[in-house]
Design a protein that fits this description.
By secondary structure, the protein is mainly alpha-helical. It has a domain at about 225-280 and about 405-480: Serine Threonine Protein Phosphatase 5, Tetratricopeptide repeat. About 40% of the residues lie in helices and about 5% in strands. It has a two-stranded antiparallel sheet with strand order 1-5. Helix 14 packs across helix 15 (about 430-445). The protein is globular, with a radius of gyration of 22 Å.
């Protein structure tokens, strides 16, 4: 799939436009002479359209001919991962950004408003991919295939494509479920046109995502048998395990037993830990990597934008940090770094004991938000290979490092936490084994092993911080542990106060974007906004 992505990116086939969540955003229609009849006329057309669904993760829209931004958001900000990462990390104890762009300080403080451009961007981006998936599903029914004389093995292959489209749609509905709770909701069965989407409530959306992931399981490829970068049963089970781990937050009903069931399915499949933790975050992480379950694929020459892992690397370093050693000799934007809570999770900040904790700098305390050297910098992501060779890059800025949406280590930690929280069907001994496998990789030996007595729920929050930091999990984790809002756990500039301050509980959900509330009278704003 990575080669397919290179082809699609190089051809410029996909030009994405970020709507400001207009009421018709779910029902985009062509504005040129390229119609469904021509796009879906052949089996190859269906494969190309499937690639478009995946490419939506990693491509952004261009600026307008007059140089203006498309959709009200600078196209450099409009990449899915950049937006998702900002909303998952900048609002937490793991990261803070020095930039003063409109909307960034609100995220740093955990106090975004309904007109925050980055929340609007994530919301729009998720809806855009859902829209494309709905279109694909409308055009790939048995009736449509028969009318186009597509039969036999080609029709069977398209059945799998349909399952993947449903997975990608379910993933984006999970993003909306987790962040916004009660978003607009449309499937392929809804009429196309300027129709205001209805609002779905969080419990109903949870049930929908759960039912979709279960329904497609049998039509997806077995774990690690699909093209690289395409969803398979492993990705399906991994998302179900994550969904169930957070079920009490989403629905009020715990489903830790189910989290154990589905994380166990992933663990029992054909995945294994990468020997070297840091190789997971190098530009050749698509080679001989049996830990990653599903990735967003980036190409630093043919698929360039200022989001994705280009953003993760460049925004986390500046010119004083020798950008060449990070594989981006022309980069270094000096924006994101840690708050003091994150490096404090590790025995030291330079990765000589626990090799996962790799930070740069001398001042861990954040006294000034706008000062990039306040707070240690994260050196986890690099556009260099595991052999220390330069990764593919255009102008020395763009990254070819792929980003894992799911990897096996997370499933080990889901299993263990669900056992610690009282889920049935798990085993405390297995949980200990899985945790110590992660720690033995991190320490290089058994010196970092923990005992069964150490495996409290709070341990898992800290261990997830050590294993998964800056991978887009932290806001969700802190909410599950009851520490995102309130005053029981503070970090620098939480609530806009240097020492940290309480956040009201309504901020466990983000507000629906103001633009969509104005456009769609069916929507009701989340409580508190």
């Amino acid at each position: 799939m990575k080669n397919s992505f290179k082809t699609i990116l190089a051809s410029g086939m996909l030009l994405l436009s970020l709507n400001s969540c207009k009421k018709e955003a779910f029902n985009l229609t062509p504005t040129n002479d390229v119609t469904a009849a021509s796009v879906y006329a052949t089996p190859a057309g269906y494969k190309n359209s499937l690639v478009k669904l995946y490419a939506t993760f990693g491509l952004t829209s261009p600026q307008g001919a007059d140089g203006s931004d498309v959709g009200g958001l600078n196209s450099g900000f409009a990449d899915f991962l950049r937006l998702f990462w900002m909303t998952q990390e900048l609002t937490t104890d793991e990261a803070i950004c020095a930039w003063g762009d409109v909307g960034v300080p609100e995220l740093d403080y955990g106090t975004p408003t309904p007109d925050n451009q980055f929340l609007r961007g994530l919301y729009s981006r998720s809806i855009l991919q859902i829209t494309f998936c709905n279109e694909f599903l409308r055009e790939s029914t048995a009736e449509k295939l028969a009318s186009r004389n597509i039969t036999g093995a080609d029709a069977t292959a398209i059945t799998r494509y349909r399952a993947e489209a449903r997975f990608l749609r379910a993933y984006q509905y999970w993003v909306l479920l987790d962040a916004f709770g009660n978003p607009p909701f449309v499937t392929e069965d809804d009429a196309i046109g300027k129709v205001n989407p209805k609002q779905i409530q969080r419990v109903a959306l949870f049930n929908y995502v759960e039912s979709e992931l279960k329904a497609i399981e049998g039509d997806l490829a077995a774990p690690r048998t699909n093209d690289y970068g395409r969803a398979d049963q492993g990705a399906d089970w991994a998302l179900l395990a994550r969904l169930y781990l957070n079920a009490q937050v989403y629905t009020g009903t715990a489903k830790y037993t189910e989290a154990i069931t589905y994380s166990s399915k992933v663990i029992a499949a054909s995945y294994s830990l990468k020997n070297n933790y840091m190789d997971l975050f190098r530009s050749d992480n698509d080679v001989n990597n049996t830990e990653n379950i599903l990735t967003i694929n980036y190409d630093g020459i043919n698929g360039t934008n200022n989001g994705g892992t280009t953003y993760l690397i460049n925004a986390g370093i500046n010119a004083d940090m020798n950008p060449t050693s990070y594989g981006v000799p022309g980069g270094g934007w000096g924006g994101n770094r840690t708050r003091q809570n994150l490096p404090a999770l590790f025995p030291n900040p330079n990765g000589t004991i626990d090799k996962r904790g790799v930070f740069f700098g001398t001042k861990s305390a954040v006294d000034a938000v706008g000062e990039f050297t306040d707070g240690l910098r994260v050196t986890k992501f690099k556009n260099i290979t595991s052999d220390n060779l330069p990764g593919r890059t255009l102008n020395g800025t763009f990254s070819s490092l792929d980003f894992a949406l799911f990897r096996l280590a997370e499933q080990y930690l889901i299993y263990g936490e669900a056992v610690a929280r009282g889920g049935s069907g798990g085993d405390a001994g297995k949980a200990l084994t899985y945790v110590n496998q992660l720690r033995q990789r991190a320490y290089g030996n058994a010196s970092g092993d923990v005992s069964a007595a150490a495996l409290t729920t709070d341990f898992y929050l800290d261990e997830r911080g050590r294993e998964l930091y800056w991978e887009g999990h932290r806001r969700t984790d802190l909410i599950r542990f009851g520490k995102f809002t309130g005053s029981t756990y503070l970090w620098a500039f939480k609530g806009g106060v240097q020492a940290g301050a309480s956040l009201p509980t309504f901020r466990n959900l983000y507000p629906l974007p103001l633009a969509d509330l104005i456009a769609n009278p069916n929507l009701v704003q989340n409580t508190g906004y």
